[in-house]
Design goal:
11 helices, single chain, two-stranded antiparallel sheet, 8-stranded parallel sheet, 14% strand, alpha/beta, 10 strands, 314 residues, TIM Barrel, binds zinc ion, globular
Length: 314
């Protein structure tokens, strides 16, 4: 790895065509050498699903199909992928789940499994999730907890905890996607639902350019619980509007690997939300650059093996 390539790995929205071209070609040399399981792929078809939050994100594409994902992942060896729910209008959770499960069943793509939407605290949660849990492609549930209308402490209400415990009984995991200041709530939830496996989305949404001390402490606490794995995803989207390079992401990535250990971290592309900070390829290549000096086996665990084991995708 040369300093020159490292310089080029940064991606700047305002950098202009020449710099972007340099970034792309230089980054090609740094493509992860391992096969990839992308544990966090969003797909949406606005003709069939309502995504109210997307109205406030005009930078994101209005359509995100599997074919679009394949174009974005061109040059990366994505061998399997896991769909991540897209925060649809809650009335459409079942529609969303059925759509993605149909796509998994077709078997004509790398899409193998899904983390579907759901509202663990709602009265109808058990009736919603139990039939879906019997589909082997359903691996877990996520409810985004960092939306502006979701107060801190929301995930600690007894009905929410009960819903998350039910997931464990059904063999499903729950994705923690929350503000970094509220990771302590996440820890309390994990402690109260010891029979459920959790995935910490987006490294716990750290302030990539800010102080990491409090985040590191909270990640250490979460990582000390054996039923939590860390998803290395999302951090490029949080650089939105700022120039960044692989070195800027390194403290977060390295702390995730140190805290969880090489066997409990998984790569997530977070396409197309990642495009707020970088094309999918540049994010994957920047991550590959950050872990370049680690043992080849550990790199393969991060990009492939851990996800295969965690989700049972062998
Ligand atoms: Zn995402």
């Amino acid at each position: 790895m040369t300093p020159t390539r490292r310089e080029f790995l940064g991606w700047t929205a305002a950098a202009g065509a020449a710099a972007t071209a340099a970034s792309t070609s230089a980054a090609t040399a740094a493509a992860p050498a391992t096969p990839i399981i992308d544990t966090h792929v969003h797909l949406w078809d606005l003709a069939r699903l309502r995504l109210p939050w997307l109205e406030g994100a005009p930078e994101l594409p209005r359509a995100a199909s599997w074919a679009d994902y394949q174009k974005a992942a061109d040059g990366l060896n994505v061998v399997k992928a896991v769909y991540m729910e897209v925060d649809v209008d809650p009335a459409q959770h079942e529609v969303e789940a059925r759509l993605v499960l149909e796509q998994c069943r077709k078997g004509d793509s790398a899409l193998r499994a899904a983390v579907i939407g759901g509202r663990p605290a709602s009265d109808g949660f058990a009736a919603y999730i139990k039939p879906l849990a019997s589909d082997p492609a359903v691996k877990g549930v996520r409810q985004v907890l960092h939306g502006p209308t979701t107060p801190s402490g929301y995930c600690l209400q007894p009905s929410f905890v009960a819903g998350v415990r039910l997931l464990g009984e059904l063999g499903l995991c729950f994705d923690l996607c929350m503000r970094h200041a509220e990771l302590g709530d996440g820890l309390k939830l994990v402690e109260q639902a010891g029979g459920t496996r959790f995935v910490l989305d987006h490294c716990g949404n750290p302030p990539v350019f800010g102080g990491l001390d409090a985040w590191k402490r909270d990640v250490d606490r979460l990582a000390s619980r054996p039923n939590v794995v860390g998803k290395v995803s999302g951090i490029v989207a949080s650089t939105k509007g700022r120039s960044w390079k692989a070195d800027d992401l390194a403290p977060v990535v390295n702390h995730m690997i140190e805290a969880f250990g090489p066997d409990r971290v998984m790569f997530g592309g977070d396409w197309p939300v990642c495009t707020l900070g970088a094309p999918l390829r540049d994010w994957a290549k920047a991550l590959s650059d950050v872990v370049h000096d680690r043992p080849a086996g550990d790199q393969r665990k991060l990009f492939h093996d851990n996800a295969e084991r965690f989700y049972g995708l062998a």
